[in-house]
Amino acid sequence: MSTEAPVVEEKKVKAPSEPLFSKKNRKLLSDPMDDQNPITVQVLGICSALAITVQVKQAVVMSLSVLAVMVFGNMIISLMRNMIPDRIRIIVQLVVVASLVILVDQVLKAFAFEVSQALSVFVGLIITNCIIMGRLEAFALGNKVWPSVLDGLGNAAAYGVILILVSVVRELFGSGKLFGFELFGNATEGTGLYAIGYMNNNLMILPPMALITVGVIIWIQRSRNRKLIEEN
């Protein structure tokens, strides 16, 4: 009689897939809005925050442009992460971002030419935006596609919120308008608030006021979230 023990086949248990919007993935969207905000915490992308926030329309278009470039850039680099030689990874990232920026620039010229002219060279400078390059290098190169898309979406949205917030303050108090609509009345005809002596603050449309506005936002954020305050 055979004394050999029967062979039991081990079944491989497939690990449960992570939900698309798991707690970990939701943090990729929420953290950039507060604890890891690219402008107010990491102090990246300040140049565009100072230069193109005179009007809300320009800020919205720039925010959407950065959103498209960052999301698709993260996705493409994540898909290619195992094929990119380490020595040329920065060059590959620049080529991907530059291609996306050229595409965005052509779309703006075709469908929003006046805004494209107002943004001038700043659309092209998205190529060297520290936020985009930083997320490609720090996250997309080491993570799967879906988390990389969420990371790009979260950081681009956080960047856009600050840009739009700064532009609302500057355009409203600098010209009394939002999206071209007169909210305080007509300054030339002296209607609305202008009839009682209100005057636009022309300082608001100058670049230094953008820096001051960002500084006030940073102060408010740190007052609300004390853990962001650096200890001496």
Describe the structure using short key phrases.
232 residues, mainly alpha, two-stranded antiparallel sheet, 2% strand
What about the largest sheet? 2 strands, antiparallel
Biggest sheet, strands in spatial order?
Answer: 1-2
Terminal-residue CA separation: 80 Å
- Alpha-carbon Rg, integer: 24 Å
Structural class: mainly alpha
User: What fraction, in percent, of the residue positions are helical?
Assistant: 40-55%
What's the count of strands? 2
Low-confidence stretches: none
The H-and-E topology, N to C, reads as HHHHHHHEEH
Instruction: Tally the structural domains.
Output: 1
User: Beta fraction of the residues?
Assistant: under 5%
Shape call:
globular
How large is the count of helical segments?
Answer: 8
| Average of pLDDT | 83
Describe this structure in words.
- This protein has 232 residues and is an all-alpha fold.
- The protein has one domain.
- The chain is built from eight helices and two strands; from the N terminus they run H-H-H-H-H-H-H-E-E-H.
- The chain has helices at 23-30, 46-51, 56-80, 89-111, 113-119, 130-138, 145-175, 207-224, and strands spanning 177-178, 181-182.
- A two-stranded antiparallel sheet has the order 1-2.
- Helix 4 (89-111) crosses helix 6 (130-138).
- It starts with 22 loop residues before the first helix and ends in an 8-residue tail after the last helix.
